[in-house]
Design goal:
By secondary structure, the chain is of the alpha/beta class. The longest helix has 30 residues, at about 5-30. It starts with a helix and ends with a strand. The structure holds alpha-D-glucopyranose (GLC).
Length: about 725
């Protein structure tokens, strides 16, 4: 194509998009000009549906009256069409938008986000989010309240499961990937939906790890640690954002003009929707920053909220909105909602397609991806004497632990429209795998073994003549996610007793850890020969875990979050600052505990393989880098074993001297690479010099000249270093 033609085409396309945008703008103004204040406030409100996806009569009435913007939880072409018909029969004919918490899958459930992040494979996360969007949109859900962009450093906080762990760079990569997966290039497409970054910001710092609690986080820590994943998500095009329940520096995020206007709108240029969390506006009364619900609604509107979910405070504020400024805020919020609905294509296609829904839901390709994701999320924490993979000679496999056959728990928290009966458990997967070539010994935990008067069996007796034993321990699905904060993150004594009894049999065994958070499992780490962290792996957790246990998949997962030895160490992360007296073994007067080591049980970035890799120190192409340049280096990765495998090469920096106390190491880049047995691959890295800077207490970003230590390795604790100077 010749340049003039190409240039002309580009100009024509730009003109087309501008004209369409103008046309949309004109349609929005035409609609807005005819709405009453009540109808406008109705557009700023989403109400909830039943857990099963149906609508509530009182909400159908709101739709029929034309004072409802949309719902969340109502899903499926049936129920949504019934409500949509009501909305399109009103005076203004504005379609409803149907939202839902599609956090790690709609009907096909993928590993929980923290588990998916353990793959260190953002492309995988994007593919999973794309499937979630395809199934959701087929069910006429066009807005998800995901991805969670929270940085979490406290495993007492059950919602640590919803994000991508403790590191800003890893979390940014996964947040952006999930936004791309949900939204694609056009959110009006029949297989895409609008994303929502949440919970903005700092909710992972809830004091004591107790959900909804005060988050005492500095503005510098917000900028350095908690903002980056949100900024990455916005740069990826996220159409909406949800403030957290927390109060930041004493001001609830839901009524925080600095957060929602100065940072979000003015500094970052966000033009999308700010949607409240569930009844978060009404909870401003609990925070005691609003005397009543109607005033809470007015405060939220003035702080920068566009849409309220579940509560009706902004609607109740109607009587207070009697001045030009408030009315302008309402009009601008309605403009953003209408623009969202046009962008989603809801004015052109307000209904779902039952045929598309039937074809998309639980498509075999989706289940195949879910199995791949479950396997890639697994982290091999320990594997002494090659206990894993299970040898082919093992024909009698005993599987113990209730979680091994718990269809609901393996889906984890926020299970979308997932149905437990769709899940394939580990017991079922191993049975399918062995077929007639072996036997699975599984006694449902607590079941009576034969006669009613005998005590319930835990399966240990039945396992005595097995060739190999798998013990599954961890958290039930209702122990993880929102409102599941725990003061102890130990395993239940009953599970420890079970592992103790299996260990005493003296047979080869491996422990599978199913959990939504790090757990303090020091005794397991000391006692068990092999431990595979499987998280809550979703609908296809069973086959995915089995693929790893039997060696079809060589595990390559790495921890996205630190596993502490004790809850008393929390918060414990890899990127802590050096302190005034860094630990010196044997020196009393240095930063340490008198009763436990400072080090974690397993560090951020840790994960083993069935093979072994040698990673070189970073080979810099220059030792002196201009402040506006790029740090370029290579790393060679050698697979020293006899199995092909993936390795996640991690690159960390340390700023040797700065104005603030900077972390002892900071992840700046990572790559998951495949290395055939016996081969060596070279991995190229680039880190823009500007990424080496840091935030000052006064809110400015600073890049100092000086020396940096560059570290590369297979975990935050296994690194080899080099150094360079920034000019
Ligand atoms: C919940 C959660 C939020 C979710 C919302 C709607 O309380 O905090 O993540 O999107 O309510 O279900």
């Amino acid at each position: 194509m010749t340049r003039p033609f190409c240039l002309t085409l580009s100009l024509l396309l730009t003109a087309f998009h501008t004209a369409r945008a103008d046309e949309t703008g004109q349609r929005i103004e035409a609609i807005l000009s005819k709405l009453t204040l009540e109808e406008k406030l109705g557009q700023l409100r989403l109400v909830d549906g039943h857990a099963g996806g149906g609508w509530k009569p009182q909400h159908m009435a709101l739709a029929q009256a034309g004072v409802l913007g949309g719902t969340f939880n109502v899903r499926g072409t049936g129920p949504t069409s019934e409500m949509q018909r009501a909305a399109l029969s009103t005076r203004h004919k504005i379609p409803l938008v149907f939202a839902f918490d599609v956090v790690h899958g709609y009907r096909t459930i993928f590993p929980v986000p923290l588990g998916e992040a353990a793959s260190w494979d953002p492309d995988l996360a994007e593919r999973c989010a794309a499937v979630a969007a395809k199934e959701s949109r087929a069910a006429n859900v066009s807005w998800t309240f995901a991805p969670v962009a929270d940085i979490a450093r406290d495993p007492r906080w059950g919602r640590i499961v919803e994000g991508s762990g403790e590191d800003p760079v890893l979390s940014s990569a996964f947040t952006a990937a999930r936004v791309h997966g949900f939204q694609g290039k056009d959110i009006s497409a029949p297989d895409r939906m609008m994303a929502c970054l949440k919970h903005f910001a700092g909710s992972g710092e809830a004091e004591g790890g107790r959900d909804y609690n005060f988050a005492d986080v500095s503005l510098r820590a917000l900028r350095e640690t908690h903002f980056p994943p949100f900024l990455a998500g916005l740069k990826a095009g996220a159409g909406s954002i949800m403030p957290s329940f927390s109060a930041i520096d004493g001001v609830p995020a839901t009524s925080n003009p600095w957060l929602l206007q100065d940072v979000l709108r003015k500094e970052w240029g966000f033009e999308g929707i700010v949607v409240s969390d569930y009844d978060a506006i009404g909870q401003l009364v609990n925070h005691r920053v609003a005397p009543s619900w109607d005033e809470a609604g007015q405060i939220a509107l003035r702080s920068g909220l566009d849409v309220e979910i579940w509560g009706s405070c902004m609607m109740q504020a109607q009587g207070l909105i009697d001045n030009a400024d408030d009315l302008k805020l309402v009009d601008n919020a309605v403009r953003r909602v209408l623009r969202m609905k046009f962008s989603l294509g809801l004015f052109d296609k307000p209904y779902g397609d039952p045929a598309r829904e039937k074809e998309a839901i639980l498509h075999p390709d989706h289940l195949k991806l879910a199995r791949e994701a479950a396997a890639k999320s697994c982290v091999l924490l320990k594997n002494n004497n090659q206990t894993l993979p299970i040898p082919p000679a093992a024909k009698k496999i005993a599987i113990l632990g209730a979680l091994a056959n718990d269809k609901l728990s393996q889906m984890g928290s926020w299970t979308g429209d997932g149905h437990a009966e769709d899940s394939v458990t580990l017991v079922e997967a191993v049975r399918q795998r062995l077929g007639n070539n072996g036997t699975v010994i599984y006694t449902p935990a607590g079941s009576s073994s034969g006669f009613s008067f005998r005590k319930p069996s835990d399966g240990v007796d039945e396992a005595k003549d097995a060739d190999y034993i798998i013990v599954v321990v961890g958290e039930n699905g209702d122990m993880t996610g929102e409102a599941t904060s725990r003061s102890s993150i130990d395993l239940p004594q009953q599970q420890l007793d079970l592992v103790q009894k299996v260990s005493a049999l003296g047979k080869p065994y491996a422990v599978v850890l199913m959990t939504g958070r790090p757990l303090t499992v020091g005794w397991l780490a000391e006692t068990c020969p092999a431990i595979l962290l499987a998280w809550h792996g979703g609908t296809m957790a069973g086959p995915g875990i089995a693929d790893v246990l039997f060696g079809d998949v060589n595990p390559a997962g790495k921890l996205p979050v630190t596993f502490p030895r004790s809850v008393g160490q929390i918060p414990l992360t890899y990127n802590s600052t050096p302190t005034s007296r860094p630990l010196v073994e044997g020196d009393k007067w240095t930063s340490k505990y008198t009763d436990i080591k400072n080090s974690p049980l397993w560090p951020f970035g840790h994960g083993l393989s069935y093979t072994s890799f040698q990673i070189s120190p970073p080979l810099l192409d220059k030792r002196t880098i201009p402040h506006d340049g790029t740090v370029r280096f290579k790393v060679s990765v050698t697979n020293q074993g006899e199995r092909d495998g993936d390795e996640v090469v991690q690159a960390y920096i340390q700023d040797d001297v700065a104005f603030v106390t900077r972390p002892i190491k900071e992840l700046k880049a990572f790559k998951r690479v495949s290395v055939p047995a016996g081969k060596t691959v070279t991995v190229d890295f680039e880190i823009p010099s500007k990424d080496l800077g840091y935030w000052m207490p006064n809110g400015t970003y600073r890049l100092d000249p000086g020396t940096f230590t560059l570290m590369t390795g297979s975990s935050s604790a296994q690194v080899r270093s080099s150094s360079f100077s920034l000019q």
